[in-house]
């Protein structure tokens, strides 16, 4: 495996392939001090980082055999010579995880030319460009091997974005009841944390993990034992008093910001202006009634209103020679007409201002509460904002750069935005952080995220805080400190590389990763796996294929099979025409259903479990230690 990158994602991906899948890894990095983010994670740590991983693997092996070799290649630019030196011509897969899309595209074209059978995993932010590039590279691989498709000789191209991979987890961590979310075939899966014994809900699929128990006996290293991933039913029953993570199919139905798609009268005109119009209407009606009462022949109501409006707009004939009461009413109507002119002018100005504000960024409404404050509208923040609004969750954004890429999305979704530096006094107050439900600090500067989180906690000690931190060690230290300082509040510290690396590693192994669910400081992967070629699945029932602590079959992809499962399943809901429309993914699988080689299933697996399922587990004892 060859990994080319310039930030923490490349190093973490190399570690993932090395420690979890036991692969030979060559890591291509720029020279010391020239990485994409040298200010937070020093590039001088790269060699020590790789050496530390090798030392850990040597200790994990425990059988005296040397650990698999790992190379470090330093180059300012990834050229054909550098790719040849890294062994791309003999490699099975290449991951291009530079922060620059152009660099990844140029390197991918060169690598496909050097090795048409190479499996490519490319990090791209531009989704549309990624679709075109994936088709071109797969076509080039197919032309290099006539009669065979790219997937038959496993030279597929996978386009991933660290922002897309990490955004659902970051967004879900800030929402009550949706702490962890994975999307599959348009269905939203929620990994909800529950405490204490309880009855499984109708929408529950399975129990994914039992959370760490602080009252348990200390681990050999003196720390608290970690969570227990993918437990069996007996373990779940025995740990009924412990917190657990349950996977369920739900959709969030929370409060929404008013006026998302339309502009009601209450937003078009101010309250004072509406009262002014009401007073004028009342004056016109009073004048019309007075005209009816003072007229000798008792005029009709509509005709009286008509004459009053003519007097109000000064287009009626002067009431010369008529009774004094009629003349006085005409003068009063003219006075009301004079008062109407400034009110109409103010209404026009307010309407123009309202429509202008609709095309610009909105300010947070006065009575807003229970919302999510999102700091930073960069690459990650934009994806998180889109995910939150898809769930109809009210959001207030804070951004210091008026040209940030996410402002266009916020303007289109009519999301309130506060332009200003979060470290300046009054900015978070303008975002109504004191009445917010949670705070998402996703700027590109770790110290800014930490400062905003600490200030928000000083305002509201119970505020839910989620921080994006670049350095994973720093994220762990901040998480432990804030949890100790505010034990009753919810604190989450996440690094994007920590959430994205498992998906990139799984794609390099040739499997489609649907999402990653973080459980404390560990990760569960939701992956789509072909049953063919996996003896742990083929010919076994769903219950027999379940391996506690490693993997579990969650759903069957009915689009991959020619016939429906033999075990009866609940009837799907009818569509608008009254006919049943079977879903592509069947989640309520009977434990007795036998998995066939032509089936394609969705599994939840630990990182070690997925490696074992793919046949790449380096050592059984290391895996047993990972899953006690």
Brief summary:
By secondary structure, the protein is of the alpha/beta class. It is built from 20 helices and 22 strands.
Q: What does this molecule look like?
A:
This protein has 628 residues and is α/β, with parallel strands linked by helices. The protein contains 20 helices and 22 strands. It has a 6-stranded parallel sheet with strand order 3-2-1-4-5-6, sandwiched between helices. A 6-stranded parallel sheet has the order 14-13-12-15-16-17, with helices on both faces. A 5-stranded antiparallel sheet has the order 7-8-11-9-10. β1, α1 and β2 form a beta-alpha-beta unit. α4 runs parallel beside α5 (127-144) and α9 (271-294) packs across α10 (301-312).
Structural class: alpha/beta
Helix content class: 25-40%
Low-confidence stretches: 36-69, 252-263, 562-583, 618-628
Total of DSSP H or I helical runs spanning 4+ residues: 20
Shape: elongated
Percent in strands: 15-25%
Beta strand count: 22
Using the CA coordinates, give the radius of gyration.
32 Å
Strand order of the largest sheet: 3-2-1-4-5-6
Distance between the termini: 29 Å
Mean of the pLDDT scores?
76
**Largest sheet report:** 6 strands, parallel
Jot down its keywords:
628 residues; alpha/beta; 6-stranded parallel sheet; 22 strands; 39% helix; elongated; disordered C terminus
């Amino acid at each position: 495996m060859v990994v080319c990158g310039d930030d923490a994602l490349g190093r973490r991906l190399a570690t993932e392939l090395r420690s979890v899948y036991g692969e030979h890894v060559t890591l291509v990095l720029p020279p010391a001090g020239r990485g994409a983010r040298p200010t937070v994670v020093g590039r001088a740590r790269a060699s020590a980082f790789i050496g530390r991983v090798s030392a850990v693997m040597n200790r994990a092996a425990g059988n005296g055999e040397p650990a698999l070799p790992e190379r470090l290649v330093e180059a300012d630019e990834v050229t054909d010579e550098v790719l040849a030196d890294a062994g791309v011509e003999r490699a099975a897969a290449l991951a291009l995880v530079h922060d620059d899309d152009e660099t990844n595209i140029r390197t991918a074209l060169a690598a496909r030319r050097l090795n048409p059978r190479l499996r490519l995993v490319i990090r791209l932010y531009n989704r549309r460009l990624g679709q075109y590039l994936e088709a071109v590279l797969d076509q080039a691989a197919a032309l290099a091997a006539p009669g065979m498709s790219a997937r038959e000789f496993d030279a597929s191209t996978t386009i991933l974005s660290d922002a897309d991979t990490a955004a659902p987890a970051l967004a879900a961590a800030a929402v009550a009841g949706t702490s962890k979310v994975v999307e599959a075939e348009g269905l939203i899966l929620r990994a909800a944390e529950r405490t204490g014994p309880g009855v499984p809900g109708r929408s529950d699929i399975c129990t994914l993990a039992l959370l760490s128990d602080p009252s348990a006996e200390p681990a050999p290293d003196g720390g608290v034992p970690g969570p227990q991933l993918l437990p069996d039913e007996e373990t779940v029953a025995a740990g009924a008093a412990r917190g657990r993570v349950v996977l369920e199919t739900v959709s969030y139905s929370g409060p929404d910001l008013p006026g998302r798609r339309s502009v009601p009268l209450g937003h078009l005109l101010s309250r004072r202006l509406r009262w002014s119009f009401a007073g004028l209407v009342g004056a016109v009606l009073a004048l019309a009634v007075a005209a009816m009462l003072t007229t000798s022949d008792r005029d009709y109501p509509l005709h009286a209103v008509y004459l009053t409006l003519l007097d109000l707009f000064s287009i009626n004939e002067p009431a010369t020679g008529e009774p004094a009461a009629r003349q006085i009413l005409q003068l009063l109507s003219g006075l009301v007409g004079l008062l109407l002119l400034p009110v109409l002018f103010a209404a026009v100005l307010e309407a123009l201002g309202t429509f202008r504000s609709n095309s610009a960024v909105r300010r947070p409404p006065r009575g807003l509460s229970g919302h999510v404050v999102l700091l930073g509208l960069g690459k990650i923040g934009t994806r998180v904002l889109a995910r939150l609004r898809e769930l109809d969750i009210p959001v207030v954004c804070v951004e210091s750069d008026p040209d940030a890429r996410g402002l266009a999305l916020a303007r289109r979704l009519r999301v309130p935005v506060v332009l200003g530096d979060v470290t300046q006094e009054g900015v978070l107050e303008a975002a109504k952080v004191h009445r917010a439900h949670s705070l998402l600090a996703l700027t590109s500067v770790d110290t800014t995220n930490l400062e905003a989180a600490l200030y928000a906690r000083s305002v509201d000690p119970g505020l839910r805080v989620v921080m994006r931190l670049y350095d994973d060690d720093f994220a762990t230290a901040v998480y432990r400190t804030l949890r100790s300082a505010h034990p009753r509040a919810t604190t989450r510290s996440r690094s994007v590389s920590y959430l994205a690396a498992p998906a990139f590693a799984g794609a390099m192994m040739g499997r489609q990763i649907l999402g990653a669910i973080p459980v404390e400081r560990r990760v569960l992967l939701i992956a789509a796996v072909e049953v063919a070629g996996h003896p742990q699945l083929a010919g076994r029932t769903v219950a027999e294929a379940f391996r506690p602590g490693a993997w579990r079959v969650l759903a069957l992809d009915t689009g991959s099979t020619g016939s429906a499962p033999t075990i009866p399943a609940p009837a799907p809901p009818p569509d608008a025409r009254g006919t049943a429309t079977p879903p592509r993914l069947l989640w309520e699988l009977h434990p007795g259903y036998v998995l066939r080689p032509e089936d394609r299933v969705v599994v939840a697996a630990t990182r070690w479990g997925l490696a074992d399922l793919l046949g790449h587990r380096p050592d059984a004892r290391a895996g047993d230690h990972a899953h006690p």
